[in-house]
């Protein structure tokens, strides 16, 4: 998810008819569950006809040197990112969250994440655009040229995302609706929308016979603002799919980081030693539950989100091993008692500060 406070985003996806793939999670993570990638194992985004895998991959870190990668990018990290992408496809994951700003010079990055998406298989690839105060309608033509040059000879379908703007959103929503009617995209979604903004966008598009497909927001076991501010309930009521970014709390829920070993870079100012100390009882219980299923803590917390229904988590993968581990969150389910227990334990921890635009 891009750190642009006020922007409109337009996403284009590529699609090629695939062979049916059955992928098995890596033995390194003691998982033998297979992931089917045929229609019954996918879900529609809201009321649209666009179908995605039940878990996606976030590409925010690919090429980024402003927040991730310890402010450095090199050939080894590039190779790892490409392996993450290819490993995801090999495991049947075909939904990738990317943006023009990820890794771009605009974000002080080293290499744009879009350039890493090279294999021509059935993929859903959001290519988000930063528009600021420019009209969305004026940017549609340039966007198609941009995407055509990056993903040449790949048929285009689409999904549009939009960050809430400080000066109003009606024109952006109308522009996204125009994109659907012009056949440039197949679905419209929003990002970081509050309940009111979500309902307004839903009703505005509904008048044109266009369903609102999704709302992409920060959502994890330890950041449950969408449950508290009415966004999750509104998504469920309206049939809008909730796409969860930072679903493993940028690594804090994996068990990798300890009070004596916090994450580096900007994340270290969010997930401090004090916060990680308070997190340990929850992490211990997550680890215990995972042991009962032969799953890692990462797989447990992703499964917790999937168990909320109508949620597609998009964890970020820096390498193939992480991508394969994420697949192990699929094909099984925590019990209702375990879901409730983890929520109760997490409720004892004060959440970190979220993205400011969530409250616009």
From TrEMBL:
Q: Which GO terms describe its cellular component?
A: cytoplasm
Q: Where is the NADP-dependent oxidoreductase domain?
A: 54-119, 172-345
Pfam family example for this protein? Aldo_ket_red
Tell me the keywords, alphabetical order: NADP, Oxidoreductase
- Do the record's keywords include Oxidoreductase? yes
GO MF term (any one): oxidoreductase activity
Which PANTHER family does the record cross-reference, listed alphabetically?
Answer: AFLATOXIN B1 ALDEHYDE REDUCTASE, OS07G0143000 PROTEIN
* Protein name, per record: NADP-dependent oxidoreductase domain-containing protein
Top-down, what is the taxonomic lineage of the species of origin? Eukaryota, Viridiplantae, Streptophyta, Embryophyta, Tracheophyta
């Amino acid at each position: 998810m891009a750190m642009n406070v006020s922007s409109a985003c337009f996403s284009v996806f590529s699609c090629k008819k695939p062979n049916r793939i059955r992928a098995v999670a890596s033995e390194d993570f003691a998982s033998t569950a297979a992931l089917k990638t045929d229609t019954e194992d996918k879900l529609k985004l809201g009321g649209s006809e666009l179908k995605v895998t039940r878990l996606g991959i976030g590409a925010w870190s690919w090429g980024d040197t402003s927040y991730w990668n310890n402010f450095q990018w090199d050939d080894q990290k590039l190779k790892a990112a490409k392996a993450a992408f290819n490993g995801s496809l090999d495991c049947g994951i075909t939904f990738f969250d990317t943006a023009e700003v990820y890794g771009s010079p605009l974000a002080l990055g080293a290499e744009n994440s879009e350039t890493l998406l090279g294999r021509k298989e059935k993929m859903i690839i959001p290519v988000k655009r930063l528009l600021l105060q420019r009209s969305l309608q004026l940017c549609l033509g340039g966007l198609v040229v941009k995407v055509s040059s990056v993903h040449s000879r790949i048929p285009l379908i689409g999904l549009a995302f939009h960050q809430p703007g400080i000066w109003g959103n009606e024109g952006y929503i109308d522009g996204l609706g125009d994109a659907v009617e012009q056949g440039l995209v197949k679905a419209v979604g929003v990002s970081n929308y509050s309940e009111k903004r979500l309902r307004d966008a839903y009703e505005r598009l509904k008048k044109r016979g266009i369903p609102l497909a999704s709302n992409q927001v920060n959502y994890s076991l330890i950041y449950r603002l969408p449950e508290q501010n009415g966004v999750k309930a509104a998504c469920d009521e309206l049939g809008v799919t909730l796409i969860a970014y930072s679903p493993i709390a940028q690594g804090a829920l994996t068990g990798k980081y300890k009070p004596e070993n916090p994450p580096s870079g900007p994340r270290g100012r969010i997930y401090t030693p004090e916060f990680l100390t308070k997190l340990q009882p929850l992490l211990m219980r997550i680890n215990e539950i995972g042991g009962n299923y032969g799953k890692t803590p990462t797989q447990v917390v992703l499964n917790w989100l999937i168990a909320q229904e109508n949620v597609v988590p998009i964890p970020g993968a820096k390498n193939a091993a992480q991508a394969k581990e994420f697949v192990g969150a699929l094909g099984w389910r925590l019990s209702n008692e375990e879901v409730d227990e983890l929520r109760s334990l997490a409720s004892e921890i004060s959440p970190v500060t979220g993205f400011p635009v969530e409250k616009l």
